[in-house]
Design goal:
The structure holds 2 protein chains of 2 kinds. By secondary structure, chain A is mostly helical. Chain A contains 9 helices and no strands. The radius of gyration of chain A is 19 Å and the shape is globular. By secondary structure, chain B is mostly helical. Chain B has one domain. Helix content of chain B is 77%, strand content 0%. The longest helix of chain B is centred in the first third of the chain and has 36 residues. Classes of the chains: A mainly alpha, B mainly alpha. Chains A and B meet through α1, α2, α3, α6 and α7 of A and α1, α2, α5, α6 and α7 of B.
Chain lengths: 168, 180
């Protein structure tokens, strides 16, 4: 079912473009053109995050932290293997992608852990980054309960994600 | 985090520090190259959607619920909020941010305290209301998954329930006393 969704969606978009008289090929090429400059600007950050994450890993620090938190994670039904991912996700997308790729390599894409990690990655966002750029454009100094509410939603998202993955 | 990791490694295995860093750099480049492919394909599709004004259509549908959730705002701000949410749903995050920032500025009355509508917008944006987890599906396909998009419906469920939760929480806590 889900495998059909994306081909159908893309076909629908193309059909829609045809009806609207939009040149889909030119539009696609124009959009795809942006990928290289975007990646070129992101690359230093991704590499920096890669180095930081690997050091954090290899030093054994993350191991201690996750061992310490494992009982809490197990209690709410989150596999402890994705503990690092859930902790880093609110801070940095790039670091989280690094961890996701590593989870795929280590436990397999189609394993329960791989699926949970994918869902968490797809359904949450970098809370701290989003709220800082959004509030930075205004005069607001006191963000009140924005961050706590966003974090609570994030926790809910993680728990629901792991729960849903039991059925696929 | 970085400094404490370095200190620990320097104490326990000083020889492996440089090796780890270089290995990480190499893996970083590999990942970037994979990402260029993923982004190129999706950004192409997004551009087609954008040229068809699909996000504008979606934002029209959203205007009712937005009026209800955000309370009274001026027309321009409301349009920006709708476009922000619509772009998020379709997955053009890079298009969503400018609209979001414009909406925030529209909601800004020079007050030092965040208003209810501002908090609402940030919470909605930070729960990531994305219908299509494009990058994740791309990564799964590259990692050789048998069914890259099998994570689709759990992603949708676990993105919308927390978003609704967030909206309810913000409404419950901040009532409508500070419209803006």
């Amino acid at each position: 079912m889900a495998d059909l969704f994306i081909p159908i969606l893309i076909a629908f978009v193309m059909l829609f473009a045809l009806i609207k008289g939009v040149d889909a090929y030119t539009a696609f090429v124009n959009g795809a053109k942006g990928a290289l400059p975007l990646m070129a600007s992101l690359m230093p950050f991704i590499i920096a995050m890669f180095v930081a994450v690997e050091l954090f890993r290899n030093s054994g620090l993350s191991g201690y932290l996750c061992n310490f938190l494992a009982p809490v994670f197990r209690f709410v039904g989150i596999p402890p293997e994705i503990c690092e991912l859930t902790l880093i996700r609110p801070f940095s997308s790039n670091a989280a992608y690094v961890l996701l790729r590593d989870i795929f390599a280590r436990y397999g894409v189609d394993s329960y852990i791989g699926k949970c990690a994918s869902v968490i990655m797809g359904s949450s966002d970098t809370i701290f980054y989003v709220s800082s750029i959004y509030f930075a454009s205004t005069h607001v100094k006191k963000t009140l309960l924005t961050i706590p509410i966003a974090l609570l939603c994030n926790v809910a998202c993680t728990i629901i994600a792991c729960f849903c993955c039991r059925f696929i | 985090m970085l400094i404490s990791s370095l200190v620990m490694m320097a104490i326990f295995s000083p020889g492996s520090v440089v090796g780890t860093m270089m290995e990480a750099g190499k893996m970083g480049v590999t990942m970037c190259i994979e990402f260029i492919g993923i982004y190129a394909v999706w950004m192409g599709v997004m551009q087609v959607m954008d040229d068809c004004k699909l996000s504008h259509k979606l934002s029209k549908i959203l205007s009712r619920p937005v009026q209800y959730i955000f309370g009274k705002t001026d027309a321009e701000t409301e349009k920006n909020i709708c476009l922000n949410i619509a772009s998020n749903i379709i997955g053009i995050g890079s298009a969503a941010t400018p609209y979001g920032i414009k909406a925030m500025q529209g909601l800004d009355k020079g007050d030092k305290r965040a208003t209810r509508a501002m908090i609402m917008l940030v919470v909605i944006n930070s729960t990531g209301i994305q219908l299509l987890p494009t990058t994740v599906i791309g990564m799964r396909a590259m990692a050789g998954s048998a069914s890259p998009s099998c994570v689709l419906w759990p992603t949708i469920v676990s993105t919308f329930i927390p978003t609704i939760l967030g909206v309810l929480l913000v409404s419950a806590i901040y009532r409508r006393r500070s419209n803006g």
